[in-house]
Amino acid sequence: MTTASPWRLLLTPAAPGAWNMAVDEAILRQAGSRQSPPTLRLYAWQPACLSLGYAQPFADVDTARLRQRGWEVVRRPTGGRAILHADELTYSLCAALDEPLLQSATILESYQRLAVLLIQAAQSLGIAAEMASHAPATHTEKGPVCFEEPSAYEIVAGGKKLIGSAQARKKEGVLQHGSFPLHGDLTRITQALAFPNEQAREMAAQKLLGRATTAERVTGRVIPWETAAQALVRAFEAGTGLALERGELTGAEEALAEEFFQNKYAHPGWTERA
Q1: Which class for 93: exposed (0-12), middle (13-18), buried (19 or more C-beta within 10 A)?
Q2: pLDDT at residue number 139
């Protein structure tokens, strides 16, 4: 796998959800217009944050429970359903529409290319990961939780979803980001979502445990964020033939991120829009 442009690597400090989404969009804007290089960004969330898919109803959120736990909520620029970002490695890739690594006839084709890199990273950590070739045909009703089911070309281990990703193609370029849960209780997300009663909440938690997993559950050990990040960097470089160049956000990206943070991702008009 080859690509025409040098890629930049950003390792950014753990940050609130609205800032993380603002930074992703700022990089998308700049990398898409080639004002910045195509970028692989690795990051984390502090405090824990519930992220909603672009069109997911805000009514899915139990705001009282969310606040009681000190968690935040943000709406992603990509689709899908809710994720509680806590003990995880998050990646994002941003590039122009014609960047060879992401360029393809369909989103699923580029998903597949990137899934191969994610699998290689997971396997280097001792995880017997593989690609989900299709969503299970038996699942007919979609709940509010993203990790309930693997979608096409997402990563599973032991038949359970391990890494979830979402992609958006806009006039500015291509953004794909994804969540790799390293450890912690996956069922915590059910405490941030609205259910008709406690029995339904408990059933959702048990269903999630049966369909999703973490790196710790698979390997029996806690994998530090830095170790998982290094594995992903090595897999990216080996799979693309690139040497990632460590960098920082540019001044233009920081200014755009601040604008997106204030006027979009930290604003109820965006978060509660659907």
Answers
A1: buried
A2: 42
What is this structure's pTM?
0.92
Average pLDDT in the chain? 91
CB atoms within 10 A of CB 17: 24
Query: Within a 13 Å sphere around the CA of 253, how many CA atoms are in the beta-carbon half?
Result: 26
Pairing of strands 49-52, 72-75: parallel
Catalytic site includes residue 94 = no
d(CA 1, CA 117): 10
φ, ψ of residue 266 to 5 degrees: the values are -95, 5
Q: For residue 29, what is the domain's CATH number?
A: 3.30.930.10
Q: How many helices (H) and strands (E) does the chain have?
A: 8, 11
When computed from its CA atoms, the radius of gyration of the chain, rounded to whole angstroms, is 18
Residue-wise pLDDT for 104-144, tens only, equals 657 778 888 899 999 999 999 999 999 986 554 444 455 77
The pLDDT of residue 137 is 42
What pLDDT score does 154 carry?
A: 81
Asked if residue 225 is part of any domain, the answer here is yes
Q: What is the pLDDT of residues 188-203, one digit of tens each?
A: 999 999 999 999 999 9
Q: How many CA atoms lie within 13 A of 15 on its CB side?
A: 18
Write down the catalytic residue from 146, 155, 189, 257. 146
Q: What span, in angstroms and rounded, lies between the C-alpha atoms of 178 and 22?
A: 15
Asked if the structure places residue 184 within a domain, the reply is: yes
The total of structural domains in the chain comes to 1
